[in-house]
Amino acid sequence: MTDKPENTPTDAATKAQSIGRWENEGGTAPPPSPATRKPPKRPRDPNQLAKMIVDIATGETGDTFAASSPMSELGRTGGIKGGKARAAALPPERRREIAQKAAATRWAKKAK
Asked: Which of 8, 61, 67, 77 has its CA 20 to 30 A from that of 97?
């Protein structure tokens, strides 16, 4: 027989529980998603910056700061049609209330 009582957790279960608790309490950061990943910083050295600009201009390397992710394109399409679609869906009375509130806010800012 073993010296351990039968209701005590095994070493593997204890490790799994402590690892799970560590991750839940912010012990490790999740890897960044492609949508939130920041582009690399531009070099501070003027010579390296000049080379980077020339490389981008000649097409040798791509501009890493261009927003070309699928999520940015999706956001752009929603932003383009957003106001027009919302205005078409609202009844004229509600559009008038919104416009009056916006005008009152603008005039209140000028009065200050």
From this structure: 77
The structural domain count of the chain equals 1
Query: The domain containing residue 51 runs over which residues?
Result: 42-112
Asked if residue 25 is part of any domain, the answer here is no
Within a domain: 54: yes
Encode pLDDT of 24-51 as tens digits.
Answer: 665 555 566 666 666 667 788 999 889 9
Asked if 28 contacts 22 with a C-beta cutoff of 8 angstroms, the reply is yes
Q: SS in 3 state form for the chain?
A: CCCCCCCCCCHHHHHHHHHHHHHHCCCCCCCCCCCCCCCCCCCCCHHHHHHHHHHHHHCCCCCCCCCCCHHHHHHHHHHHHHHHHHHHHCCHHHHHHHHHHHHHHHHHHHHC
